[in-house]
Amino acid sequence: MRRSHSRAVPWLIAAAALSGFLAIAGGYVKARAASPTGSPTATAANSTTACARCHAEAKTEPSTPMGRALELPGSNPTVTAHPRLAFQKAGYSYLVETKDGKTTYSVTDGKTTMAIPVLWSLGAGNQTWVLEREGKLYESLVSYYLAIDGLDITTGDELIKPHTLEEAMGRPIEDREKKACFGCHSTNSVTGGQVNLEHLHPGVLCARCHEGTEAHLADTLRGKDGPTPPALSKLSSEDMSNFCGQCHRSWETVVRGPWRGEVNVRFQPYRLANSRCFDGADPRISCVACHNPHQPLEQDSGFYDGKCLACHAPASQPAQQAATPTVSQSTPPIANGAKTCPVAKENCVGCHMPRVNMLGGHLTFTDHQIRIVKPGTPYPN
Amino acid sequence: MQPAKLGELPSKTSPAGRQPEDRRRPAASLSRTCLAKTCVIQTRVIQTRVIQTRLPQTRLAPSRLARTCRLALARLAVARLALAIGVPLLASMSPMAICQPDAGFQAISAAAESARQQHDLVRAIALYRQGVQLNPKWQDGWWFLGVLQYGNNDYAPARDALTQFIALTPEAGPAYAIRGLCEFETGDYDRSLEDIERALMQGAANRNRNAGILRYHEVLLLAHAGRFEQALAASAEFSQGEAAPEIVQAVGMAGLRVSLLPQEVPQDDPRRNLYGAAGTAALAYMSGDTARAQQAFQQLFQQFPDAPNAHYLYGYLLFGKNPDGAIAEFKSELAIAPSNAAAESMLGWAYLLQENYPEAQIHGAKAVALNPQITAGQLVLGRAMVETGDVANGVAHLQTALSMDPGNLEIHLALVRAYAKSGLREDAQRERQQCLLITRESESHAAQP
User: Which of A272, A359, B383, B407 could form a disulfide with B414 if both were Cys (CB 3.0 to 4.6 A apart)?
Assistant: First the structure.
């Protein structure tokens, strides 16, 4: 009989020394002090502008939610629109106050107050703040939620019962987690596997996904024909799922991880791969078959009908004609034959990709596990 | 978690593992509650007797004598705990057994209980044996027969009695636990491990003391079976607090990939120092005190510079948190022991997770060349080949790995990837379902080959 690996986990992922992390964070704070504009380097931004000369996608990408995944002080529309956000929980009072482009996160137990400047705001719309205190980084214990237009406990931290002001302020960010946070919310913050916040540029810009962008740009500016960044559009659906899954959590990552139940609805590559129709070699069921990462998310559910009909088209309408790839992909011969829906020919996602509420409705996600949803059936894990 | 010390008995009358006075129990079960109490008392008497009768017969050096005492006490603690956790378990079952229509059986069962209460071990065993012959479905009879025989060091008959009990009550975790310990004593290690693992899965280690005794044997048996990584994982149970020297030795042996049982290593064998030092360092790491662990490992390396698997052990522990440090340790290990297939496998695995597939393939191939039976090596080689484009050969190695370890999540994950890359949708879906099934059966997973 095989025993689970579960006991291996606590010591395998036990807390690591923070020495390297402190040095990096310290260096970053120093660099920021010398750069009051909040833009440590402009390379990524410049390259994005330069990319836009030839690539139209680069013009729109910075305004997408991914392009705005991290905001620096002075350029954060969320807190600018909400200069005073207050919240109380478990005997602690929180205030996120923005004045003159500077945001301060403070927490008090009524006797003592801890006030910390917000250096990094993660998320466009919903927002969590990364705080620095005595050389350590913390994830703010409260976050801004668009759905309630106010503060509440940060997703994932609901079970934390703070015993001290510091614990009420935020959760320490481990070294590995720091890579994940900044690696997914910014560009140029992780190089060679190491976090380097001095070169961070907010948001997911060209160079974050397209490896070799800087060299390609330099070659182009010199009029030289050099190697171009690998074409991501040529990735198979499986590889694309893993690529996007670097941040949105790949199927493997979620399978190895602790997330069971509705909490994993956030991880679209995992949910999509669990769909009966998922085929890692079929471009019609790829992330980019439906979503263009260079454009804002399409909210009209009717927009996606064509994507579904690419496979589930009636016999009178050949599948390949129905397919309108969101970004160009190499398309191998496609066999039709998927069943057609007996109920409707439009608004497919309304029934087959139900919306799932989390945190009492603070967050809502579309479940990417495409399926026939039967009333009363539990959430398929 | 409290430290689990094998040579230590509970100091209070109420033993660990036993529920507090069960006042909410239905009246029909009260007699069994009383049985539980008397059994505990009986076991304490057995303890005393064994100590009194055995020690004068042994002519051992003082240190061995002390060790023998500790082991005897540990064994008896197990019996006592078994009663404590097993009798309430019996009490919770549907009433049957003791009150049977047959007058002869009733008389024998009453006499057996009386003998047990009077601490007449030999007579109690004989009467229980007689009772179960008359009524083979007498659960309490088989249970007490097994436990009393175990306490009397009659391991084979105890095992057989517990086998009968388990046939009647298949979900009885404590019975598997004691039968596993009997099998350990009789040298049937494979079955012992199977029973102890089953007992643990059924919650027999629901108290610290039970957990300590069962996990200790689990570590020994896993290492003896060559399942060293799992033995180390089981050792994590002992990382909080001060572990007994026997446990430290066992952890060290598992970490250094030694298949011997501690009793197979003579007391004056210098390897015991090595095992102790390795166990101390490993437990320090598992406790989360990485600075103390680093110091302990450096001492280990200085004291035993050529010890096989010492660097491997540190690398294996570092791997989850500090892959670069782990790679350095695996390389150090291979400098000492170039034919260490496990180190080659883990080095390849570390490169694999860093997406350095060509390097992973080199070390996977070396591992398989050194030992084709090493599952991790086959996995690393197979997955690296899939990632570098040689999908067909990669799948072949993964299938080999799967035949050696069908429940290994990482192999199934690699097969998902391989089949998806091959366009074999149905196969990929089947493997995905298999992965989900495996993960549903456990809590979470570290990426380990």
Answer: B383
Tokens of B67: 């060790």
Instruction: Give the ipTM.
Output: 0.74
B233 vs A7, A176, A381: nearest CB: A7
**Cβ B88 vs Cβ B70: under 8 Å:** no
Q: For A1-21, what is each residue's pLDDT tens digit?
A: 333 333 332 222 222 222 222
DSSP letter at A343 equals S
Residue type, B3: P
Task: Kindly state the tokens that stand for A104.
Answer: 């301060």
Task: Measure CB to CB from residue B443 to each of A4, A251, A273 and give the nearest one.
Answer: A4
Which residues contact residue A13 at a Cβ distance below 8 angstroms, ignoring those fewer than 6 apart?
Answer: B320, B321, B446
Give the span between the Cα atoms of B411 and B433, in whole angstroms: 13
Give the chain B residue nearest A19 (alpha carbons).
B291
Which tokens belong to B446?
Answer: 């570290």
Nearest Cα to Cα of residue B240 among B282, B286, B206, B204: B286
pLDDT tens-digit map of B265-295: 988 898 999 999 999 999 999 998 989 999 9
Q: What is the dihedral of CA B169, B173, B178, B179, to 10 degrees?
A: 50
Supply angle C-alpha A344, A348, A351, rounded to 5. Answer: 90
**Closest in A13, A255, A260 to B446, CB measured:** A13
Cα dihedral B25, B28, B32, B38 in deg (nearest 10): 90
Q: For the residues of A176-202, what is the DSSP string, one character each? A: HHHHHHHHHHEESSEETTEE-GGG-EE
Question: In sequence order, which ranges of chain A are alpha helices (DSSP H)?
Answer: 8-12, 19-33, 43-54, 57-60, 77-81, 165-169, 175-185, 206-209, 213-221, 237-248, 251-256, 268-273, 287-290, 305-312, 319-322, 348-352
Identify the residue with better confidence: B409 or A333: B409
Q: Is A120 helix (H, G, I), strand (E, B) or coil?
A: strand
Q: Half-sphere exposure of B191 toward its Cβ, with a 13 Å CA cutoff?
A: 16
CA angle B227, B231, B237 (to 5 degrees): 165
CB B96 within 8 Å of CB B168: no
Q: How near does any CA of chain B get to the CA of A6, in Å?
A: 5
Using an 8 Å CB-CB cutoff, list chain B residues near A7: 233-234, 236-237
Burial of residue B342 (CB within 10 Å: 0-12, 13-18, 19+) is buried
* Total-model pTM: 0.70
B198 contacts on A by Cβ (under 8 Å)? 1
Domains defined for chain B, CATH in brackets = 29-206 (1.25.40.10)
Segments in B3-61 forming alpha helices (H): 30-54
